[in-house]
Please model this.
Amino acid sequence: MNAPSKKRLEPPIPFSAAEHRIAGALEPPYDWEGLALAARNAYRYLQASAKVSNEPVMLEWAEAGRNFRDRLNGASEEHPGLITHSAGMRRQRVFGNFLEPIRSTLDAKNSAEIEAELGRVIITSACAAVGMPPALALGFATLMRSGDPHERRHQEWKELAQDFPASPEQIRKWAERATEPTIQRFLIGLEEARAIRVITPSELGTARTQRPPKASVETGASLADGLQADVDSGEDKVISVEAGPIEPPENFLVWLIQRWIRSGFRAHFGVLGQWDFQTVPELEVICDGIAREIKERGPNLDKALFAVMCGVSSLPGDMAMFVPMKPTTDLWNDGFRSLKWCLLRVLDLKTALSIAPMDVPSHLIVEVAFPDFVAAAAEEFTRPRPSAATVVEVLTGSDDPKRARRFLETYREWLRQFGRGWLHAVYDARFAGSCWQLYRL
Model:
């Protein structure tokens, strides 16, 4: 049985069009819990953006944010839930970052630049009528805290904070040289936000019945239940902004679906920019190189086989390496002969988690065959390692996490060499996410 739907409650006070958009950008809970706290901190960033840019449109948004904050504070006596929140609310990947001021460990100049950019992203999200992407909300929080050393935080976060890009061109340059995938995703999201045209609050109209635009504020049937449960329980670990030990997602198929659901606002309308994907001409060069390495049994055969795995699965390397080599009720690699998907994981997550793989009906298994020459070459790794549990164990002959990390780093370096000299670099996640175009080659 599906969980009862959580319908968004009516706002505690009538919202103006601009206030609806600001609230929607912050991704509030269905019952508006803690919204006054989030509005206070959002105003701080809106004010910082207005101060740095001194543009009239930014000043108008800052004024709208101040009015929203004041009105919610005034309503909190009658609606105390506006200024309180449960412990679990802080784990919300967007809204949770606005419940308390982010304590900056950077110098005043860097903090001001980052706060101003965060304010701008709130505004562009409001203008586009979308919630702020989690990669941006979490990324800004990580940047603000990057002044203090942390063993699980990649050094590039601090470098980015101290050399924060001020223009689209600088953002692209940073994205091309960044090696940390979470930073790449942050910068791609930042570039998308910069591309949104900023309009004044008065241009939004005066409608008061508009709901903040977030589909997941309601839980519906089957698939939505699975996605929402995965978010609320914190099981989806792939969107962490801290670079620690490599860990697989609990649900590969659910993660893939979430990636598209939470993709940039343009993708929801079928408009896919080239920045997030390798283009077809680029893929022709990359795939020719991968195929040649496999057919010639070159010195980087393990990396070429892994590239095929990433491309067919659409999973970036830090997840594809953990795909099982034995049947599951999610997805698995069948000896590099094919990749198999269990549709039950999408249709009925609870059942998929409770039954054995051999009990899944055959019509719910989707098989994507690898080219014959891939399977033949892979026997060099699969035959001597029949008990290997995951893809990375097959390719490295070890379950040592340090060895897995080294393999991933060398794979990414090898993949980048196909695009050396290109303005549009070849990144692990960018290549893997281009899988849907591979079938056009």
The CA atoms of residues 215 and 261 lie 9 Å apart. Residues 1-5, 206-245 have pLDDT under 50 and may be disordered. The radius of gyration is 23 Å.
